[in-house]
Structure formats: structure tokens, C-alpha cells
Amino acid sequence: MAPPQPSSGDEGAFDIVATYRRLLSEDPDLTMPVAAIESLIVGLAKTPSTTVSETLDLVSKLTAKLKSGVSNPISLSAGTDLFQQYLISNLQRARGDFEQARNHLVQNGRLFIERAKAARETIAGFGKHFVRDGNTVLTNGGSRVVGALLRNAAESSNGSGRGSIRFRVIYVVSHSATGDSAEESETAANIAALRERDIPVAEVPPTAIAYCMDTVTSCFVGAEGVVENGGVVSRLGTYQMASLAKAAGKPFYVVSESHKFVRLYPLGQSDLGIEQNIVDFKTAKGSEETESAKDEGVADLEGEGATSSRHSCTPGDEVDYTPPHLISGIITEGGVLLPSAVSEELIKIWF
């Protein structure tokens, strides 16, 4: 017997934020955009709709709830925007039985998720060719796709018949006050996996990047989002690393799945749409911003009961924007792109 279906308008009963967080916790290999798409598919399957307009409205509402429920929605926005575009282009062409067309879309969405999950190994296969015998690689954070690339390189033949590629890795490691963040756990797992494969790994603090740069052959970083102009949004400190690599004449590669390409065009660090409070001026009275608000008697700068369009980033999850002129190439499952090619790829996806 089929399970009972919720009545129309029950989208409020489905907690998309809780679903998104559960999916990420259950599958450590899941990226944020894919988790967002999977959450929308679950919501679509659990909440009935009878017309194209109802379906698109449902997905739009679920997307808004998800974005407002996380501190930094940049990465997941790539997934939700992609899924919405997929629905619009396919539902508008639907003919005949709407329910059948809707179920077909949900099923195809799940197939997309499986392909997206497989992208990491494809990228590792492309990227391993950028690591050669005797190289010293600089990277930061717990990017799983960078970890896969380096593990793949460690297991690859060096072409001389004398064994696998031998290289060294310098990991830039930041420690939080608690020492138990997800980023630190993923970084530790990447380092342990490389050392198990006899790859020497050094751990250095962010303040030692410039000191190490003379010994570095190339840099590899992950991304939370690849933006329209070919720049990237990634963990805080990536911009610093890219700037130092450029000054030292060292190639700087971004390793990212194409489902992280996002329709965002920042002009600088303050254009990301999130409040990070990284530069927090304080006096003996406390934070300058807080004191200023108190002095003016402002309880809510955007009006009582209003919801700010800017999200407040959780400490430890801060990001920065690296402009395209600092990036040598973007390694994706479709091949290696120049930053200037990202806008064309987005046009292919959206139009």
C-alpha cells in the first residue's frame, strides 16, 4: 500500500533545513550544492502539487527557507539555482499527465545527484597530471576534491616504471578555539590519507605561507563557489595564498565540481552577501558597530520584524573572494578551464 500523501499546502510541515543538515551529516562526501538539490527533491516528493505553477512556487519557497536557515548560502545557492532552472526548462515542456512528468523529474534529479557525486574522482583523474615527481604542493583547508586529487596522484605511476609519483605537500592549517570543527576533521583526514601513502606532509600556520612559497611548485585549493567572472569564493585565507603565489610566480589552481558554478558577480570582499564580522573594531566598551547601534537607539537596522538579506556567517566558516587574475586554471570534471571560460559555462547551463 502506498504511504499517505500530505495534503496540498503542507510544505510548511517539511523542514528543509533539518533535511539538508541531516544529509550532510549522514554522507561526509556530499557537497553543499548536491545536498541542497537532494533536499529539494525530498521536499518535492513529500509535498504534492498539481500544476507547473504550484511546483515552481513550492520549490521557490523551499529554496528561500533553506537559504535563510544557513549562515553562508553561497555554495548551496549554486545547487538550488541549478535545480530551479532544470525544473523550469523541463516542466514548461511537459505534455500529458502532469503527475507522471513530475515524478520523472524527481527521478532524473536523483540521477543528477549520483553523477555529481562521481564528479570528484573524474576531477582527480584530470588533476593528478598537474602533480609531478619532486613537486612540493601547497594547499589549505579540508577540501575533499583536493584530497581526492592528491591521493590519486600519490597512487599514480610516475611513468618511469620505478613506482608511483613522489611529491611533498604543505598543508596550511588553522586551529579553532574548540579544535573540533568539521573543517579541521576533514583536513586531518586528508593529511592522514596522504601520510599513509608515504607522501610527506608538513603542517604550517597561515602566517607561514610567504615563508614557504620559495619551496612550493604549485598551489591547489577547493572552492565553495566559482563565480561568473572566474573568481572563486573559498575558505578565508585563499585570497592571501593566491596573492602570494602570483607574486612568487607559482601556478595557483582551483579544484571544483561544475555544480559549484554560481551566478554571483562580486567586485570585492564586501559583495558576497554575507556578514562575516572579520574586521571587528572594538573599544573598551565593546564592538564599535554594536555601540554605534546602541547610541542611535537602533534595535533593528532593517525595520522591526524584517529579515535581513545578508546572512551572518558562523565563526570558523568565514570565506574570502579570490579574483580571476590570480588563478591559473580551474580543474573540473569537464576538463581544465581558464577563469575567462566560466561565464560561457554558466551560459550553457542556464540558456
UniProtKB/TrEMBL annotation:
UniProt keyword annotation of Transcription regulation present: no
Entry GO terms, CC: cytosol; eukaryotic translation initiation factor 2B complex
Keyword entries, A-Z: Cytoplasm, Initiation factor, Protein biosynthesis
UniProt-annotated stretches for the region Disordered: 285-320
Domain of life, source organism: Eukaryota
InterPro entries in alphabetical order: eIF2B_alpha/beta/delta (IPR051501), elF-2B_alpha_N (IPR042528), IF-2B-related (IPR000649), IF_2B-like_C (IPR042529), NagB/RpiA_transferase-like (IPR037171)
Cross-referenced Pfam families: IF-2B (PF01008)
One annotated GO molecular function: guanyl-nucleotide exchange factor activity
Main location: cytoplasm
Extent of Basic and acidic residues compositional bias: 285-297
Coiled-coil region list: none
Location of the protein in the cell: Cytoplasm, Cytosol
Subunit structure: Component of the translation initiation factor 2B (eIF2B) complex which is a heterodecamer of two sets of five different subunits: alpha, beta, gamma, delta and epsilon. Subunits alpha, beta and delta comprise a regulatory subcomplex and subunits epsilon and gamma comprise a catalytic subcomplex. Within the complex, the hexameric regulatory complex resides at the center, with the two heterodimeric catalytic subcomplexes bound on opposite sides.
Family named by the database record: Belongs to the eIF-2B alpha/beta/delta subunits family.
Protein name, as recorded: Translation initiation factor eIF2B subunit alpha
